[in-house]
Amino acid sequence: MILGNICTRDCLFCGVKKGSPLPVDSLEPAKIAQAVNKLGLEYVVVTSVTRDDLPDGGAAQFIAVIEALADKKVEVLIPDLQGNWNALGRIIYASPAVINHNVETVPRLYQKIRPQAGFKRSLELFYKVKAKNSQICTKSGFMVGLGEEDGEVFALLDELKSANCDLVTIGQYLPPSKIHLKVDRFVDPALFEDYKQYGEKIGIKHIEAGPFVRSSFNAEEIWKNLNV
Ligand code: SF4
After folding, report:
1. In this structure, CATH architecture of domain 6-226
2. Domain ranges within the chain, ordered by starting residue
3. Is the pTM higher than 0.85?
4. I need a labelling partner for 69 at 20 to 30 A (CA). Which of 38, 62, 149, 169 fits?
5. What is the DSSP code string of 69-90?
6. Ligand 1 site-directed mutation target among 10, 11, 82, 100, most atoms within 8 Å of CB
7. How many Å apart are CA 151 and CA 162, to the nearest integer?
């Protein structure tokens, strides 16, 4: 995770620290490249907290990391950049293998549990990526157990498909502490399978769905399978 560990937003389900982030570390891309080489990684998932305090939302730092990892496959899991599509365009131009952006939940729950985000804005991000570079794989993820209805899950998959999202991850919400949003329901593994089957039937290229699935689950294998 780049750009520090303090987020400028306040999603009710998220365990990341909230507040005023520290200044951007200009040495971070080089430090990441060093760690990646030491670990012998070929595929790297890079994410960040949401940095609404930065005019470009942190895009320049994502680009610097992609460039520092030029000989690796990089999946960037980015925030919505507050709809700064110029900044997004620069990330697209840096050509990561995958641009991932989590919608996290169904649109009806945004106002209540992700007040600073916008569902339409998040969907637009996928349109923009594919319009600028159709070779970049688009990916999104969301949780269930936050208060959504099943019909809304299927409708969300329809929306992601229409927005040109190639890959989707779906996992069970588990609260990071007692003060976070409570679990609304535990979804049966068979129902996760129904979500997967439905999403792949409507044309999403691959869905990972299951109680313990998270954004980066099997990320490298999924990307390789799509690109053989
Ligand atoms: S924007 Fe992302 S990191 Fe920040 S609180 Fe929301 S889910 Fe957590």
Report:
1. Alpha-Beta Barrel (3.20)
2. 6-226
3. yes
4. 169
5. TTTSEEEEE---GGG-HHHHHH
6. 11
7. 17
